UniProtKB/TrEMBL annotation:
This is 3-hydroxyacyl-CoA dehydrogenase NAD-binding domain-containing protein. In the N-terminal section; belongs to the enoyl-CoA hydratase/isomerase family. Keywords: Fatty acid metabolism, Isomerase, Lipid degradation, Lipid metabolism, Lyase, Multifunctional enzyme, NAD, Oxidoreductase, Peroxisome. Pathway: Lipid metabolism; fatty acid beta-oxidation. It comes from Steroidobacter flavus. SUPFAM superfamilies: 6-phosphogluconate dehydrogenase C-terminal domain-like (SSF48179), ClpP/crotonase (SSF52096), NAD(P)-binding Rossmann-fold domains (SSF51735). Residues 483-567, 602-687 form the 3-hydroxyacyl-CoA dehydrogenase C-terminal domain. PROSITE patterns: ENOYL_COA_HYDRATASE (PS00166).
């Protein structure tokens, strides 16, 4: 009794063995934990004084899964599936005592026990799908035996965490015990079941729910159909479905073999490698080498926003959602009312969909105050400017803010492209100024580029990053340059997309390979969605580009029913003969003979220049690390997670291949195109972006 190993303790109280695991931060099932559980279970089983066993974890949570840092390394016995079988074979009642999150391998371990008890705040889930995997320790075969195949399908393909109450209703948790009493309650529960001397049933032998679904292939066909859009491009959801099919149609041991084969296939594939990389990238992004995590931050209790347009309104919602009061400033009453009206409509639509309580609409609107007076921002802790994208206008606003807003407040600009240092110089406190670049729609998109100026203080940076987290964004710290990380790389792609129109490709020809690659849409469909008239004005339009001509014809994108594409009532896009003619006329005027451009060329010419731009961004230290660039593209532009972001993707293609292709395309990429020296160097050395540590 006592310590089994460094992370496992075994004690016996009143006939109940208590195995306690302590492996911070999340009790991941690394080798020592697996070994400890098996040894402790064997000891408890062999001890005649023990009547039942409780498995419980110290710290913030029950096992949150297999240890992801061990993935990709040679496995060391005992493997997790074997651990679960060892638990299952214990001859006395075993009880998993759950708090925090029992996830992945953690829930699989719990499914090896005869019983599961949990506190009300506990959550259960099989989130492996988010790592491009499936539960590989019997979860796919045991879970449907308890909750039924429908619920299991939903859980393994969504990776959702379900709360203790739902888990209890589904049969996954046998008893919910009072918060704060887990240890004592689990022991009491163990004593009770030991005293009842019930016949112990292993989950693997509970077959009624899977048998009931046998011979009903439509269950799976319907599920696939209903989720086809959501699963597009991903391998893991389909593989997860196949394992549940196996649970329904095959005996347990055969189903386990299917699980093993499919798990290993996913684990060895590039999609899971990408998704695991993203898991760690999302956590690394918060770490800023020269701003330690204990840097003091400033309290943000009141926010001011200037401009109630497309962005200002969305930005305001983020703060209202987090319970932070916001004052919004506009120049005209009409613009203010329109802006606040859009916000209200947004909240009401969410409420109609049942995703917000009606009383919360008023609560959130109550946190928003509109005004035409900049002076009302005097006592704000943070002011975010979201006025027109014009340097003179922005400098004027910042000059005024400098005089009005209290000292010690943060002054931020939502500019997409402009020089944040120049904006900061319009004030006498540039160390308090930075960019907070939200993405549209600002209340929905997760990305926030936190733009650090030359003089922005560390405290301001730390506060902005913390605030990003608080309002549910993923903050990426970037430096000042035209377009920062996301839009600067986007520009490299747009330049090629435009160029290819003049060489003979139509917008839909360019969009298709990018959509097939996994992007939500191609560059031209994206233009139509955003509106082709952003930054366009009738007065200055000179019919000098395809876009200008389209705008002049009032083909300004989806909102006018036509842009590059024609749109029907349901906003379905169709290739447009009008656009085709405009493009052909331009090409003819330029004396270009149209050629057929292969899908491969389109894809490579759109993506490789972006990668090249990403390399320049790293050279210039605009981004801290390659994975931060990937986080920008995944969360700001819908880059497919299963391809890990542009920099990770480049590594999978091979940097030498990327360089060779860029050289092959040569002059087609434009007279100003230059290969990044960093990219060339890494390629020549046979290295990857991921080697830049
Ligand atoms: N393995 C290794 N490290 C893990 C881990 C895991 N399963 N889960 C979390 N961590 C690490 C994180 O990397 C982070 O490390 P850091 O502090 O050095 O950056 C630390 O634990 C804390 O994690 P979070 O910052 O994410 O903490 P939160 O409190 O926000 O969230 C959590 C906790 C909900 C448990 C979240 O970490 C999470 O979702 N973890 C992953 C769960 C998961 O995917 N489990 C399945 C694993 S695959 C599996 O089990 C395969 C099996 O079927 C065979
Ligand atoms: P918008 O034109 O929809 O809104 C701007 C609003 O600012 C207008 O309502 C206008 O009346 C108001 N305004 C102008 N000058 C003002 C002043 N001095 N005081 C108070 N209000 C003033 O523009 P949008 O799209 O919201 O853009 C705002 C900023 O956000 C720009 O810098 C833009 O580059 C940036 N941005 C835009 C994105 C987009 O997709 N629209 C995405 C990310 C950033």
């Amino acid at each position: 009794m006592g310590a089994i190993n460094a992370v496992t303790d075994l004690s016996v109280e009143d006939g109940i063995a208590i195995i306690t695991i302590n492996n911070p931060p999340v009790n991941a099932l690394g080798h020592a934990v697996r070994d400890g559980i098996v040894k402790a279970m064997h000891q408890a089983d062999a001890d005649p004084a023990v009547k039942a066993v409780v498995l419980i974890c110290e710290g913030r949570t029950f096992h949150a899964g297999a240890d992801i840092t061990e993935f990709g390394k040679p496995p060391v016995a005992p493997w997790l599936p074997e651990v679960v079988v060892e638990i299952e074979n214990v001859s006395k009642p075993t009880v998993a005592a759950i708090h925090g999150t029992a996830l992945g391998g953690g829930l699989e371990v719990a499914l090896g026990c005869h019983y599961r008890v949990a506190v009300p705040s506990a959550k259960c889930g099989l989130p492996e799908v988010h790592l491009g995997l499936l539960p590989g320790a019997g979860g796919t075969q045991r879970l449907p035996r308890i909750v039924g195949p429908e619920k299991a399908l939903e859980m393994v393909t969504s990776g959702a965490h379900i709360d203790a109450k739902t888990a209890n209703a589904a049969g996954l948790i046998d008893e919910i015990v009072p918060e704060g009493t887990l240890r004592a309650s689990a022991i009491a529960f163990a004593k009770k079941v030991a005293a009842e001397k019930r016949t112990l049933k292993k989950v693997r032998d509970i077959n009624d729910k899977v048998e009931a679904a046998r011979g009903k292939p439509e269950l799976f066909a319907d599920f696939r159909k209903a989720n086809a859009r959501k699963f597009r491009g991903f391998l893991a959801p389909e593989y997860n479905i196949r394992t549940i099919e196996a649970a329904v149609n095959l005996p347990f041991d055969e189903g386990m073999k299917v699980e093993r084969t499919l798990f290993q296939e996913l684990m060895g594939g590039v999609q899971s490698a990408a998704q695991r990389y993203v898991f760690f990238a999302e956590r690394e992004v918060w770490k800023i080498p020269d701003v330690p995590s204990d840097t003091p931050t400033l309290p943000i209790a009141k926010v001011g926003i200037i401009g109630a347009g497309t962005m200002g309104g969305g930005i305001a919602m983020n703060f209202a959602n987090a319970g932070i009061p916001v004052t919004i400033v506009e120049t005209k009453q009409e613009a203010l009312e329109r802006g606040l009206g859009v916000i209200r409509k947004n909240y009401e639509t969410t409420a109609k969909r049942g995703k917000l309580k009606p009383e919360d609409v008023e609560k959130r609107m109550g946190l928003l105050t509109g005004t035409l007076e900049l002076e009302k921002l005097a006592d704000c802790d943070l002011v975010i400017e979201a006025v027109f994208e014009n340097m003179d206008v922005k400098k004027d606003v910042f000059g005024k803010l400098d005089k009005i807003v209290k000292q010690g407040a943060i002054l931020a600009s939502n500019t997409s492209y402009l020089d944040v240092n120049e904006i900061a110089r319009a004030t006498k406190r540039p160390e308090w100024v930075l960019g907070l670049h939200f993405f549209s729609p600002a209340n929905v998109m997760r990305l926030l580029e936190v733009v650090r100026g030359e003089q922005t203080s560390k405290q301001v940076v730390a506060t902005a990053m913390q605030l990003a987290k608080k309002i549910g964004k993923i903050g990426v710290l970037v430096g000042v340059c035209h377009g920062f990380v996301g839009n600067r790389m986007l520009a490299a792609r747009q330049a090629q997309a435009q160029a290819m129109l003049m060489e003979g490709a139509m917008p839909w020809d360019v969009d298709k390979p990018l959509y097939d690659f996994g992007m939500p849409m191609g560059p031209f469909a994206m233009g139509d969605l955003a509106g082709l008239d952003i930054g366009w004005s009738k007065e200055t339009s000179k019919s000098s580009t395809v876009r200008e001509v389209l705008c002049e014809m009032d083909r300004r994108g989806q909102k006018t029913g036509a842009g590059f594409y024609d749109y029907d009532e349901q906003r379905n896009a169709k290739p447009s003969p009008v656009t085709e003619k405009i493009i052909k006329d331009f090409a003819a005027k330029a004396g270009v003979k149209p050629r057929q451009i292969s899908e491969q060329e389109i894809l490579e010419r759109c993506i490789y220049p972006m990668i090249n731009e990403g390399a320049k961004i790293l050279e210039e230290k605009i981004a801290i690390r390659p994975s931060d660039i990937d986080i920008v593209w995944i969360n700001g532009y819908g880059w497919p997670v299963y391809r890990g972001g542009p920099m990770f993707y480049a590594d999978t293609v091979g940097l030498a291949t990327v360089v060779a292709k860029l050289k092959e395309y040569g002059p087609k990429l434009g007279a100003d195109f230059k290969i990044s020296p960093l990219l060339e160097k890494l390629a020549a050395e046979g290295k990857k972006f991921q080697d830049l540590k």
